[in-house]
Amino acid sequence: MKHVFRSTLLLGLLTTAFMNSEAQDKQSPSSRIRFSVGPDAALPVGNFSDGYNWGIGGSIQAEFPVVPQVLHLVANAGFLNFFNDDDKNKQGENLSFLPVKVGVKYYPIKLLYVQADAGAAFITNKTKVKADKTAAFVYAPQVGVTVPLGGSSSIDAGFRYERVSRIVDGQHNPSYFGLRVAYGFSL
Fold it and tell me: Of 51, 97, 137, 167, which cross-links 131 as Cys (Cβ 3.0–4.6 Å)?
């Protein structure tokens, strides 16, 4: 009788463990930590467009679910280079940032999200552009969509307005519209 009880208990534990691992494998991609990597494009606006034409770069982002499929914390880091407009900007130098931001991503409906980030933009060529600061505060509200590709893969496309605090005293704050199209996956 002890033998039957132990065998039944062992079989029950193994079945429970197997079912639990199957359930974890079938979790929604948005209920796990997600990563995305992709290119960024930027279009300067306001007074920033007086000296720079456009920007291009890339970024990597991590999402940590707080409320799966609804609210995530995000961390984002990247590189963005703005190309000098030789006709308007007499300095003749491109402006490069390394933005590092954290924020929240909220899904009001299944695939659509709104995101708000804030952090620091580190100027990589401070001397060449005659910047007074090495880093500046940056914030970026964003809207976008996450399109599932199958499995845990997706495309994350977001449109944002980004503003950097003044990097040269007496000049205007750099601001621009940005587009990020990234490949998303979870581990």
Answer: 167
